[in-house]
Amino acid sequence: MDKIQSLYEALTKVDGFIYPNELALNWDMLIVMYPYITGLVAGAFILASLNRVFDIKALRPTYELSLLTALSFMLVATMPLITHLGQPLRFYEMLITPHLTSAMAIFGFVYLWYLMVVLLLEIWFDYRYDMVIWSREKKGFMKFFYKALTLWVSDTSPESRKTDEKIGYFITVVGIPSAFLLHGYVGFIFGSIKANPWWSTVMMPVIFLFSAMVSGIALVMFIYMVVSYLRKQKIDMNALDTIAKYLFYILIIDFTLESLDQIHRIYEADESFDILKILVRGKLFFTFFIMQIGVGVVIPLATLGFLQFKKPRVRIRKLIYWIISICVLVGIFYMRWNVVIGGQLFSKSFYGFTSYKVNLIGGSDVTLSLLWFIVPFFILAFLLWLLPPWKKAPPIEIPEE
Amino acid sequence: MAIEKENFSRRDFIKNSSMFAGGVVFASLINPYKFVFATKQPKGKGKWYGIGIDIEKCIGCGSCARACKIENNVPDDPFFFRNWVEQYTITNDERILVSSPNGGIDGFKQPVPEEDIYKTFFVPKMCNHCAKSPCTQVCPVGASFESPEGLALVDQSYCIGCGYCVQACPYGCRYIDPVKGVVDKCTLCYHRLEKGLDPACMMACPTGARIYGDLNDKNSAVSLFLKEHNCAVLKPQLNTESKLFYNDLSQEVH
After folding, report:
1. In what helix (H) or strand (E) does residue B115 lie, and over which residues does it extend?
2. What is the CATH number of the domain that holds A287?
C-alpha cells in the first residue's frame, strides 16, 4: 500500500467523491501478479495435457517443457500473496485455521493439491526411469542427489516403465479438472465480491480460466523458442504451428467470453454502469483498449488467423510467433491489471475515482512483483539443467490391448 | 491358548483412515448451506445492537468523527476513519456534489452559492454492523467475526492483513492500519459497551442524531426510533441486512 504524506497530496489523487478509506489502493501490483502467475501455471499444464491426454502428437517436443514451466511458476505462485499481507508471518493461519465461508481460505489447499498431487507426482513418474539412469551415470553428490530424487526406487524394468506411464496418464486426467479448479477458483475470489460491480460477475471464473490457458500456452511457446535458440537446436515447426493453432482457438473463446461479459454489462446498464463507463473510457483507456484488447487480442488474433490460411517462410513465421507470444503475455498481464487495479479505482459510492501510480523506482510492490516474475525463470533454468527433457530416454511403446 | 490378534496391519490403517475421512465428508454434507451466509441472527434473547441516524437532526459538526478518532486511536492521517460525515449538495441543475474533507472533522464549507442549491444535507457514515456481513464472510482465517450482540469485530492479534474484507465491505468502512498491518473498523466502541458506557460518537453528538440500542427490546431507543420513523438502509439490494437505519434517507446517498 502506498503511503500518502499530506492531505493536499491525497486530494490530488481523487476525482469526485470517494469514501475516505478508499483513498489508498488496498490491493496493489502484487495482487495483479498473483492471478497472472497462477494463470501461467494452469495454462502451461493444460498445454502439456493436450499432448498426454488428448494425444496430440505434434505437441510431444514441448510436453516436459510445459510441465517444468508450470512447476517453476507454481513454486512462487503464493509469494506475491504472502509478501502482500500486512502480517506476512501469519500466513500459515490460513492453512491451520481456514475460515470455510471465505473464498480465499481454500486457496492454500487447492494450491497444495495441485503442486503436490498433480505437478510433482506427474513429473516424478515422467522422469523416474531417467533419474535412475542418471543416478547410475553420475558421480559424487549428483549421484546421491538423483538417487534421492528417485526416492531410492531403482526399478528399470519395462513393466515398471509401463506402470509409470499408466499412472502418469491417470494423474494428467486428474490434473485437467485440477488446473480448471485452480484458476477458476482464483476467478471466484474476485467474482464473488458482491460489493464490487466490476468484479461481481458469474463469468469471472470462466474468463480467468480461458485467459489462463491463453497466457500459459503463449508462455510455453515463448520459452520453447528461447530454449531452442540458446541450445542452438532446430525448432520443431510442426509443434510450434500446432501450439499457435491452439492459441488461436482458445484466444477466440477467451475474447468471446470477455466480450459477452462486457456486452451484457453494457446492455443491462445497471446502477453501476455510469461509473464503470467513465472508468473504462478514462482511467483504464490505455490499459483496457490499447493493451488488453489491442495488443493482447486484436493483433494476435489477426496474425494467427492469417497464418491459418497462408504460411510464410519458417524464419518469418518464427519471428511472428515470438512477437505474438510476447503480445499475448503482455495483453493478459493487462487483463489482470484491469480487473485488480481497475476494480479499486472507482469508489463504491459510485461518485468518484481514486488513482494508482506505479512507482518504478522505490515502489516496493513493483520491485517485488518483478522479482516474483523473474524468479520462476531461474527456477526453470535450474530444472532444465537438472531434468533435461532432451536427454530423456525414448518413451516406451505400450502395446494396444 | 488362542492368540489374540494385536498387531495393527496396513489394511487396518487404511480402513480406519478412510472411515475418518468419510466421517469428515459426511459431516460437511449434513450442513451444506452453512457457508452461504457467514452469520445468522441468533435466536437467543441476548442483546442485538442496531443503530439509528436521524439525517434531519445532523448539523455536520463532525463531533462524532472527532470523538471516534480520539477514543479509538484511529491514525491521524486524513484518510482513515471508523466514522465520518458526508455532505451532499444537489444543485438546481441536478448535479450531485458530495464531499467529506477530513471526514468532516474540521467542519464543512459550502462551495456552491446558496441560490444554486436545490437541497443539501449531511450523512454520517459508520460500520453498518450487517447481520449478513459480507466482510466477516470472506475473512480467510476467521479474524473478522460477528459478536453475539451482532457487531462485526476484528481480532487484530489474529488478522493476517490480506485486505479481502476491505474489498468485500460495500460501505467502505474498513481500512488496513498502516502501522499495525492489520484491518481496523468501527466496533461500536465495544470496550465501552462492555462497561455500560455509550459509544464515543453517540456521546459526542450534540443534537441526538445518533441512536443505538437493543433491537430485541421493543422499548429500546433504537426500536422506538424505527417505530416512529420511516427508515431505510444503505444499498438494500446487496442483502447485507444492515443494522444501521437512516431516517429521511435521500435516494442519492450510496
Report:
1. none
2. 1.20.1630.10
Sorted by where each starts, the structural domains of chain B and their CATH numbers stand as: 49-247 (3.30.70.20)
Distances, alpha carbon A191 to alpha carbons A25, A53, A104, A212, A252, in Å: 19, 30, 12, 16, 22
Between chain A and chain B, the number of residue pairs with CB atoms below 8 A apart is 142
Q: What is the ipTM of this complex?
A: 0.89
pTM of the predicted structure, to 2 decimals: 0.89
For residue range A100-130, list pLDDT tens digits in order.
889 888 888 888 888 888 899 999 999 999 9
Of A20, A97, A100, the CB nearest to B35: A100
- Sign of the Cα pseudo-torsion (A13, A15, A16, A17, in order): negative
| B159·A349 Cβ contact <8 A | no
Cα gap B103→B65, rounded to integer Å: 7
Helix (H) or strand (E) holding B184: strand B183-184
Q: B142, A193: Cβ pair inside 8 Å?
A: no
Q: Which domain holds residue A162?
A: 28-391
B90 close to A (CB below 8 A): no
Nearest CA to A51 among A61, A41, A42, A40? A61
Task: Dig out the grid coordinates for A313 from the structure.
Answer: 517462410
Picking from A7, A85, A80, A24, the residue whose alpha carbon sits closest to that of residue A345 is: A24
Here the cell at position A212 is 489462463
